[in-house]
Hints:
mainly beta; 22 strands; 10% helix; 6-stranded mixed sheet
Amino acid sequence: MEELALAARNHGLPLEALRYEVTPPGLHYVLVHYDIPTVDAAGAEDWTLAVRGRVRTPLTLDMATLRSFPAVTHRVTMECAGNGRARLTPRPVSQPWLVEAVGTADWTGVPLRTLLAEAGVEPDAVEAVFTGADHGVERGVEQDYQRSLPLSDATADDPEVLVAYEMNGAPLPPQHGHPVRLVVPGWYGMAHVKWLRDITLTSTPFTGFQQTVAYRYRRSADDPDDPGEPVTRIAPRALMIPPGFPDFMSRTRVVRPGPVQLEGRAWSGHAPVTKVEVSTDDGDTWAEAALEDGRGGHDGLKGSTWAWRSWRTTWEAAPGTHVLTARATDAAGHTQPLDQPWNRGGFGNNLVQRIPVICLPRGD
């Protein structure tokens, strides 16, 4: 029942919405750890963001001050670290994502490094800790949602971390962090802290719950002392827009014989995707698909390296039952696996997508 409640509360991208290069906000995946904070229009204007800790000049920034800094817009694909969790065996118990926890948006705001430069970073600072306004209990620990980034990532120019206040040219919707959130291109969604109210620079690594307890790759099923490795950047993934039309319950696709266009999106948080391969026989044979020649967009948006790329190919469908599969490879040499290693939290499962398809007899 707890998982059903989570699945009803959060939602993924309908795979047919992969047709949108930029995901409409209502179709972009959503995962909220606790409650969506209530922030009305007046509350948004009174919202303040503190920049403090190991800085020379602590800042308290209201929304008008944030908007006074030069704004930038990045097109970024965001994916939940638990995407694919429900396909692992044994299945980790949590939000039961299949492959749909993803979306791409144009995020507008102020580069984090601009704000840190304004505050003046002390030489002994090593991490930036981000605190959201959402508050709850997880595994018995009461907490505000908090994550950190190494200072080198927080101040990098590519990917450039944003303190964002707009999504697709409009104010952030409530479920996406209104009025201000963090956007960390290339990293899984747990790093993109929503309802951001505090940035604290520290001289020691952050050891909060979401950093050292949650979001770790723990390979052992029965070792409670396994510290695991931190979940950070997005593993490569290709998703296919399911072709034809679906059976209501099973979602099995139905197509007619003849040429069928197969298309989708592919992305990685390590490096640009350089190849997408498609199989129409459940991975027995593979053929390379055509990738768009841009890097996540056609309008030159800064940061489009960290957005998905579209791909397409044509399949000559013959009557019978088929399983369609796609896999991505990035410029750093990472390729999606055909068999997924297990981890206790169900994180980073980029096992290839498999789509059952029935091709009708000729003449039907």
